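Researcher: Next entry in the queue.
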Amino acid sequence: MHDVLRGESRENLINYALTCEAYDRQQQSLHLLGGLDDYVNSLSNEELIAYVLVKAQAYPELNSLKALEEQKAKFGIAFTSHEPSTSTSAPVESVPFLLEDYIYTKPRETLISWALAAQAFDREGRGVHLDGGLEDYVDSLTNEQIISKILEYTKKYPALDNAYALDTMVLKFKINHTPRTETLGFLETMLNLIGGGIHDYLNTLPRESLMNWALAAEQYVRDKQNLHLMGGLHDYINSLTNAEIAEKILNWVKENPELNNAATFEKLVKKYITGQPETFLAEEHIMGGLHDYIFTEPREKLISWALAAEKYDRAQSNVRRMGGLHDYIDSLTNEQIANKILAYAEKYPELNSSTKLDKIVQQYLTRVYNAGSQ
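Model: Structure for this entry, 374 residues:
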């Protein structure tokens, strides 16, 4: 099939690729805005052939030119390639080649699918298997925040730096995200399912208490099921709304009726939360979590963490030298500072926690660094 496709014109290759996309979406009952036609002109002929071959492997019924022509007619595919004109009388239309050139034009549902697929690709590559993650709070992020996460992954994995690769990962990992509702109606439905008990208190609880209850409930359920997992709710709870935290509590109560009273939750908070360095564990981010939230931290904290991490590195390496990060940190963007911290955390896994970073700030910095101070 590959050799046959190589003999086809570019226009035919584009039409065959669009036909495969349409067929794939029909088989999965997907109705999405945008797609391959948004960037098909930026793909090389070999990339178009690769796309068709991937789909033909998934759907053997497409593995012939005759079948592709039949489906092309069925879907009414008739795309004309906008190849650069050789005429000098008119400007050549620019075509986006980098993901960041066109990612901001993509619909939200596509961005969410790409972000979740990139996370799955990352975890597969690292051999990490975690419950929860981006899917638990992606609906609370803005499009810009979702895009930032996608670009973080594509920077780490250049092979993902195009829409075709991300679409392929969406199919590979079977990403099919259903947006979570934050409406009171949903919570009321959950309350009715449970009936009485804990729901009487949720609407009156301050955010800190809601977080305590949710974190304690998660730990209780893990102990009950004898589960010992890295990562969890504490990695992203700060990004959740009160309604989303309440939803998690209600789900745990529904599955564990013994939790259905406030007194039990207060006992669990004392058992699992009280006595920790912080009032609640929302800031205790462990392995696999720092990169998920560091880009949302305020600049002053990022600067303090980076300077302290540098001092920690020098102490561990027994290195003494004049000058360093403090000489130019004000010229760095928040993202650049965050990446420096992540580099130290990769070198020293014990730094992959906001609590540990706060501790070394107290240990190594005589004062919190303020941007612009000398």
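Model: The chain has four domains: 2-75, 99-172, 184-283, 297-364.
Researcher: Noted, moving on.
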